[in-house]
Specification:
This protein is an alpha/beta fold and 403 residues long. The protein has helices at 18-30, 49-56, 74-81, 92-99, 106-113, 126-130, 132-143, 169-179, 214-225, 253-263, 307-312, 330-340, 380-399, and strands at 7-12, 34-39, 84-90, 118-122, 147-148, 152-155, 161-165, 189-194, 199-200, 206-207, 229-234, 246-249, 269-272, 279-281, 301-303, 319-326, 345-350, 361-368, 371-379. The radius of gyration is 24 Å and the shape is elongated. The structure holds ligand PMT. Residues 193, 195, 211-216, 253, 272-276, 278, 304, 306-308, 322-325, 337, 349, 351, 356-358 line the site of ligand PMT.
């Protein structure tokens, strides 16, 4: 991958993660990107402008009142120069000032003056990140089309553990690289479900299935790379969250139903890659069921809600893409699900030993009203990219260009 002749402006704000931006600048320069750095006054307490100047090979601007830098309206020149603006780490204060349109320092002024896509990589204490004020400000930026990259979960510099860590430099680099690709879903909100559901029998046993979540996680990452704001509702899987994707963890089909319906409010596309349990035990036992020698155990099962059909029944619902996992009669079963569940498209795959579930590769057959297409076997990551391209094409043909 190369970023030759790509012009990236990085806004560094006051947070301990500022030191990681030195690495990011290096990595972007390795890809031949042209990088300029603007720092807030707060950022200079963590890393010096000289460091970024040495790494980027360009003068670093801090103040709006720099007479030399502003001799030829430097803030406008910077805003026009940038093809991408990334603010990382983005402090709670900077996020608030961007959300409310402040222009009282160089960075906020450049953000108002630029026509380039703006990305924000939040970094703060987990309690601060969870604060309703911060979440409201992030909501404002999201609606305005600002890309929110992260934050990630994990250990924090303050000793807390939780959500609020800035994404790692290599993740930010990869997201910037992806942002120069085809951003066919830029400004769109996409919800993806992935993985299995577990239906508890008693406190130690459950009914589950073989889904690893790999297909759905790859679809979420591909939608993100296409510029979408992605929420991933994940059943119990042991996969890392794709950077830049918001994740909601659930266990049962009913929890997935509630999480998907909440996430889909106001969204544009729902992609149901999860292998949702169709049934659950009618009653979950409070205690571990005891073996009774010589007697069979009968479990009564009751039907789970059908998540994607529930979405289809809403008066205003997103573009609906289902998956069909079949061991035989792929076409007829998939086309039946397309019609019966009221879907816009269905991606059918054969499952069985070494096929569909768990493995790294897959093949898909896409069906929609009046058409179909085969995507032959390849890595799920690549297949997901192709699938997103076809979903975007069909979605946009019905909804016009991106906002
Ligand atoms: O996770 P991996 O190991 O990578 O495997 C990928 C996969 C095989 C799980 C994936 O590619 C796949 O096929 N997912 C859908 C599996 C499935 O449950 O298919 P289905 O034919 O039973 O369901 C049809 C559609 O209805 C699916 O979109 C499903 O999410 C949805 N559904 C099903 C039941 C239910 N109660 N609610 C639903 O929304």
């Amino acid at each position: 991958m190369s970023l030759r002749q790509r012009r990236i402006l990085i806004g560094v704000t006051g947070g301990i993660a500022a030191y990681k931006i030195c690495e990011l600048v290096r990595r972007l320069r390795d890809l031949d990107a042209e990088v300029r750095v603007v720092m807030t006054e707060g950022a200079t307490h963590f890393v010096t402008p000289t460091t970024f100047q040495a790494l980027s090979g360009q003068p670093v601007r801090v103040s709006l009142w720099d007479e030399q830098g502003e001799a030829a309206m430097g803030h406008i020149e910077l805003a026009k120069w940038a093809e991408r603006v990334l603010i990382a780490p983005a402090s709670a204060d900077t996020i608030a000032r961007l959300a409310h349109g402040h222009a009282d320092d160089l960075l906020s002024t450049v953000v108002l003056a630029t026509a380039a896509p703006v990305y924000v990589a939040p970094a703060m204490n987990q309690q601060m990140w969870a604060h309703p004020a911060v979440q409201a400000n992030i909501g404002i930026l999201r609606v305005r089309g600002v890309g929110i990259l992260g934050p990630a979960d994990g250990d924090q510099a303050c000793g807390d553990i939780g959500s609020g860590r800035m994404l790692e430099p290599h993740d930010l680099r990869d997201l910037l690289v992806a942002s120069f690709g085809d951003q066919v879903l830029r400004g769109r909100r996409v919800v993806v479900s992935a993985g299995p559901t577990y239906e508890d029998i008693d406190p130690v046993r459950f009914i589950g299935n073989r889904s690893s979540g790999r297909m759905g996680f790859a679809v979420a990452a591909a939608a993100r790379d296409a510029g979408a704001d992605v929420t991933l509702v994940a059943g119990p899987v042991s996969l890392p969250t794709p950077p830049g994707v918001s994740r909601v963890d659930v266990r049962s089909a009913r929890q997935m139903h509630d999480a998907v319906l909440a996430a889909c409010h106001g969204s544009d596309i729902y992609i149901g890659a999860a292998a949702v349990g169709d049934y659950r035990p009618a009653d979950m036992a409070d205690h571990k069921l005891k073996k009774v020698d010589g007697s069979p155990l009968r479990l009564e099962l009751t039907e789970n809600p059908d998540i994607i059909a529930a979405l289809a029944a809403l008066p205003a619902h997103p573009f609906l893409v289902g998956f069909a996992a079949e061991t035989r009669e792929l076409t007829s079963y998939a086309q039946d699900k397309l019609r019966r569940k009221g879907l816009d498209m269905i991606a059918a795959n054969e499952v069985g030993p070494g096929k569909g579930f768990e493995v790294a590769e897959n093949a898909l057959h896409l069906y929609w009203q009046g058409g179909d297409l085969t995507l032959p076997t390849r890595a799920k990551t690549e297949l997901a990219r192709q699938l997103i391209g076809h979903i975007a094409e069909r979605f946009l043909s019905g909804h016009g260009p991106n906002p």
